[in-house]
Amino acid sequence: MNWDQIEGNWKEMKGKARASWGELTDDELTQIGGKKDQLVGKVQQKYGVAREEAERRVDDWANDL
C-alpha cells in the first residue's frame, strides 16, 4: 500500500499501526496523522533503533498492508 493511501485512510490504519507498535499511544498515532516521516521518528524514539532500522520497519509494515 502506498503512503497516499495510508494517509488517506489513517483512521483505519491507526488500529493496524497500534497492533504493530504497541508502545505508541493513541494520541501519538493521532498526531502522526499518516505521515511516514513522523511515524518513522516515533518508532525510532519509542523502540530505540536507528533511523534506517525504523524506516525499514515502517516500510515492511506498509508493504504487508
Short description:
With 65 residues, the protein is mainly α. The protein has helices spanning 3-8, 10-20, 26-32, 36-47, 51-64. It is 77% helix and 0% strand.
Report the strand count.
0
By CATH, the superfamily comes out as YjbJ
| Alpha plus pi helix count | 5
How many strands, which pairing sense, and closed or not: the largest β-sheet? none
Multimer state:
single chain
CATH architecture: Orthogonal Bundle
CATH class: Mainly Alpha
Count of domains: 1
- Helicity level: over 70%
Strand-residue fraction? under 5%
Outline the low-pLDDT stretches.
none
For this structure, the CATH topology is: Protein Yjbj, Chain: A
> Globular, elongated, flat, extended or rod-shaped: what is the shape?
globular
Distance separating the two termini: 6 Å
Structural class based on helices, strands and sheet pairing: mainly alpha
**Alpha-carbon Rg, integer:** 10 Å
Mean pLDDT: 95
SSE series: HHHHH
